[in-house]
Design brief:
With about 400 residues, the chain is mainly α. It has 17 helices and no strands. About 75% of the residues lie in helices and about 0% in strands.
Length: about 400
């Protein structure tokens, strides 16, 4: 009897693509519902969303299931993934020991468990999901199903984006009641919004290879969001995914060079068309506009470290920033949290794992502020997309 229960649990839960398909929808669906509820209460009633245990329960149960599945599938899981996750855990442990100058168990446990240890778990959660998803039977089929329905959901939300843009409805703004232009429908999480639309747009084009009405809906939604990261997504998709002419790519690279040479003048010109960004330009300059003040986050974090005696160990093993401080630029945050060791390991992992530039676009955008790595549901969508479709393209 016990053996049958264990066998059923392995087949129907811990080694089941169907089970993790619904886990994926639960995590992504909760994120969308949670953000939509927060947005509705904020705009309509001027209230903050009260704390609720649903998210903690969902992630705790999912994390427990992932750990069990990981142990069951350990022999077949890709060794580079196991090594990468283990290396980052080792880096955080070393970092915690080094920064605890006089060993105090309570200080050490607080630093390791409540600060960088917590961030480590958050960061590695999607990688743990990926390591299991790639080894599950029929995961590609479930990945296709996930994106089929996700695209339908985003097309529906695009209708609300259009309604918000036409009638200037605060409820559908990307940044409600802030004075900043942009519309995102019922969605609110900026990073999550543009990532889902961008990935679905790439997937749509890669599957059908035509400029149909759905391509227009998804691409126009990225424009109407009013986010620089969304525009960068769209630009990279058009030039490196839709376009096949080398001359267009050369023009794009020439435009980047032109932006670098005339950076201040170009940023000043485009900022003048929007009162919000014009105000940012006047107060913080061209770099502040371009990076949405992330450059000041970098300066603030580094300014606290130059007199620190652990500067060399922090360079190697991280600790320049501790949770929840972050810059929201992928390589810089990885360096601040995990040091040069973690950054080099991350670059090597993506270089080995991502088959071509098309699938690297979310990582490129996140390097300038797309927040991909800091949002668990977004990383899950990203990982399922690559693992489900990149293999098919290579066959």
């Amino acid at each position: 009897m016990l053996q049958r229960l264990i066998h059923n649990a392995r087949v129907n839960v811990f080694e089941s693509a169907r089970f993790y398909y619904w886990v994926l929808w639960t995590v992504v669906g909760y994120s969308i519902l949670n953000q939509s509820t927060r947005k509705f209460l904020w705009v309509m009633f001027d209230k903050q969303y009260p704390p609720n245990p649903a998210g903690v329960i969902i992630y705790s149960l999912t994390g427990a299931a992932l750990i069990i599945s990981f142990l069951m599938l350990l022999k077949v899981i890709r060794k580079d993934l196991v090594f990468y996750m283990g290396l980052l855990a080792f880096v955080i442990l070393i970092q915690s020991l080094i920064l605890t100058t006089t060993f105090d168990w309570w200080y050490f446990s607080d630093f390791f468990i409540n600060n960088n240890g917590f961030y480590l778990l958050k960061y590695l959660f999607p990688f743990l999901f990926l390591s299991i998803w790639m080894e599950l039977n029929k995961s590609e089929r479930y990945g296709f199903s996930f994106f089929f329905y996700l695209k339908k959901l985003l097309v529906f939300n695009a209708c609300l984006i259009y309604v918000g843009a036409v009638f200037s409805l605060s409820l559908f703004e990307s940044y409600p009641l802030s004075g900043r232009w942009g519309y995102s429908g019922i969605l609110w999480s900026g990073g999550m919004n543009n990532i889902m639309y961008a990935i679905c747009l790439i997937h749509h084009w890669s599957t059908l290879k035509k400029l149909d009405w759905e391509f227009f809906v998804l691409s126009s939604s990225l424009i109407l969001m009013g986010q620089k990261s969304a525009l960068l997504y769209l630009l990279l998709i058009i030039i490196f995914v839709v376009n096949k002419r080398v001359i267009i790519k050369k023009i794009f690279l020439a435009s980047i060079l032109l932006l670098i040479v005339h950076f201040n003048r170009i940023i000043s010109f485009f900022s003048s068309f929007d009162s919000f960004w014009n105000s940012v330009y006047e107060k913080h300059g061209a770099l502040g506009v371009f990076l949405s003040l992330r450059n000041e986050n970098i300066e603030n974090i580094l300014s606290q470290q130059f007199t620190n005696e652990n500067i060399i160990s922090k360079f190697l093993f991280g600790g320049f920033a501790t949770f929840p401080d972050r810059v929201e630029m992928y390589p810089i945050d990885v360096f601040f949290y995990f040091g040069a060791v973690g950054l080099i390991a991350t670059v090597i992992f993506y270089a080995r794992w991502i088959p071509k530039f098309t699938y690297a676009i979310p990582v490129v955008v996140a390097s300038f502020g797309g927040q991909l790595y800091d949002i668990i549901p977004a990383m899950l969508v990203f990982f399922v997309w690559i693992s489900s479709f990149s293999v098919k393209e290579q066959i």
